[in-house]
Design brief:
The structure holds two protein chains of two kinds. In chain A, about 0% of the residues lie in helices and about 50% in strands. Chain A is built from no helices and 13 strands. In chain A, the strands form three sheets. In chain A, strands 2, 6, 7, 8, 11, 12 and 13 form a seven-stranded mixed sheet that branches. The mean pLDDT of chain A is about 95. By secondary structure, chain B is mostly beta strands. Chain B is built from no helices and ten strands. Chain B has strands at about 5, 10, 20-25, 30-40, 45-50, 60, 70-75, 80-85, 90-100, 115-120. In chain B, the strands form two sheets. A six-stranded mixed sheet of chain B has the order 2-10-9-4-5-6, with no helix packed on it. A four-stranded antiparallel sheet of chain B has the order 1-3-8-7, with no helix packed on it. The chains are: A mainly beta, B mainly beta.
C-alpha cells in the first residue's frame, strides 16, 4: 500500500497569515503517461464529512476559495492557505488515488494562534 | 447539487452484520462509482471499497476481503455496504462518497453525511 505521511500533525497560524501543510507519499503518484499527480486534498470540520478542495495535486475544486492552493509532484506535495480565515479551522487530509487501496494521510489539525 | 444521503446509526452485537445504504439524488447514478470510507475517532480515513454503479463491478481493500459486500440498486439510485463478522474495532463512522465511473478520477466528491455503527455486546 502507498503510505501517506503529513506534516505537521497540528499547526497554529494567526488570522491573515499563511498556512502550509505537507504530504509525502511512500511511492510516486505521478503517472508518466499523462503527467498527472494522483493526489487530492480534503478539509474536514467537526461533525462533518470531508470536503474536496484540490485534485490532480493543484486543481482547485469549483467553489473553493482561491486562497487554497496545491503544489508538488512525485512524492512531495503541499497545501497552502495564503491568508488564514477563521472558517479554515479544520483537519486537512491528503489522499492518493494512484493505486488502490486509496490511502489518506493521518491529517493535520489547523487552529488559530 | 449532487447529494448522497446515508441511512441512520446502527448498534450491532459482535459477530453480526450491518448494512448501510447511500441514496444518490440530483445526478445520473449509473455514471458514478460509489466508494465506502470509514473513520475511527482520531484516526485517518480508511478506504474500504467501491462499486461502479453502472455495471456493478466492485473492488475491495484486501483488509476487508471476505467480510465486505458492496451492492447497488439502480432503480433506487442507492448503494449498500454490508460488513459481516463485526467486532469492536468496527465501531466507527462509515461514509459513502462518489467519483466519476470508468475514469482515473478517483477523488471523492461529494460525500454522504456519515453513519455511525456501534458494535457492542
Amino acid at each position: 500500500d502507498i503510505v501517506m505521511t503529513q506534516s505537521p500533525d497540528s499547526l497554529a497560524v494567526s488570522l491573515g497569515e499563511r498556512a502550509t501543510i505537507n504530504c509525502k507519499s511512500s511511492q510516486s503518484v505521478l503517472y508518466s503517461s499523462n503527467n498527472k499527480n494522483y493526489l487530492g486534498w480534503y478539509q474536514q470540520k467537526p461533525g462533518q464529512p470531508p470536503k474536496l478542495l484540490i485534485y490532480w495535486a493543484s486543481t482547485r475544486e469549483s467553489g473553493v476559495p482561491d486562497r487554497f492552493s496545491g503544489s508538488g509532484s512525485g512524492t512531495d506535495f503541499t497545501l497552502t492557505i495564503s491568508s488564514l480565515q477563521a472558517e479554515d479551522v479544520a483537519v486537512y487530509y491528503c489522499q492518493q488515488y494512484y493505486r488502490s487501496p486509496y490511502t489518506f494521510g493521518q491529517g493535520t489539525k489547523l487552529e488559530i494562534k | 447539487q449532487v447529494q448522497l444521503v446515508q441511512s441512520g446509526a446502527e448498534v450491532k452485537k459482535p459477530g453480526a452484520s450491518v448494512k448501510v445504504s447511500c441514496k444518490a439524488s440530483r445526478y445520473t447514478f449509473t455514471s458514478y462509482t460509489v466508494h465506502w470510507v470509514r473513520q475511527a475517532p482520531g484516526q485517518r480515513l480508511e478506504w474500504m471499497g467501491w462499486i461502479n454503479a453502472g455495471n456493478g463491478n466492485t473492488k475491495y481493500s484486501e483488509k476487508f476481503q471476505g467480510r465486505l459486500t458492496i451492492t447497488r440498486d439502480t432503480s433506487a439510485s442507492t448503494a449498500y455496504m454490508e460488513l459481516s463478522s463485526l467486532r469492536s474495532e468496527d465501531t466507527t463512522v462509515y461514509y459513502c462518497a462518489s467519483s466519476v465511473a470508468g475514469t482515473d478520477n478517483n477523488w471523492f466528491d461529494p460525500w454522504g453525511q456519515g453513519t455511525l455503527v456501534t458494535v457492542s455486546s
